Structure formats: structure tokens, C-alpha cells
Sequence to fold (148 residues):
Amino acid sequence: MELRVMTIQDKEIIKALFSDVFTNEPWNDDWSDQAQLDAYITDLTGQSYSLTFGFFEGERLVAVSMGHVKHWYTGTEYIVEEFCVDRTMQGQGIGSAFLKEIETYLAGKGITHFFLQTEDTVPAYSFYLKNGFQEMIGHVSFSKKIEA
Fold:
């Protein structure tokens, strides 16, 4: 497996993997609006502070991490917005190996923190705990639907 930094030029292969993973169990997200999917992946990969990693088996993309770099008073952070592994390869240690490769890359760039959010009711929750992430007690997320 090989870690590669990806860019917006890789958008189509990222969209294919992302859509396949997240439109199926346990997520079941509706990404049928291709314009919305394209805009979302562009938002994540096409900004000056975007940092996207791919994990490749030969030329096949088997995992992707899309996020961005944030400079903060405690150090520079890599904030992951989306992380996924090909559904046919989950449970084989690929996600853990991918995280380790990303962490090695980040350390080499002086990035001191790895931040992400997930739901506590999905398998990803225990995956991140198993890989050394700690739940941020007292940290909450807020959302509000804007009514037109």
C-alpha cells in the first residue's frame, strides 16, 4: 500500500470511492444528486488549505482521507472531514495502516494534532478508539436547520 497526497485533479476517483462507501451500510447517505456530490468533494479537495490523502494498492484507490490544515494556538492541526476505506477491504487492517501512514506524514510536516468527528453509534467510533484517538469530553457539536 502507498500513501499519496491527492488534489482536486483526483476528484473523480475520490467521488467514486466516497459515494460507494457512504451510500451503503451503515451510513446510507443519499448522494444521488451528482452536482451536490461534485460540489462537496470540490469543497474538501480544492481549497488552498485542503489536505487529502489516498491509500493505493497499485493504481487502485482503497482509502481516502479528506480534510484541511488549521493553524491553532496549540499547534497545527489536520482536521479530517471524511475518512473511508473501500467496503470490500474493510476489516483487514487497511484503515489502521492508512491512519499510521497519515500520522507519519503529518509528523514530518510539523502537524501536531489529528482531529475528526464521528457518531458514537457507528463502527467508526470503536475503530478510532482502537487507533489511539480520544473522545473529547465536554466537546459538543451544534447544528441548526435554516428555515427559508
In short: The chain has four helices and five strands. The mean pLDDT is 91.
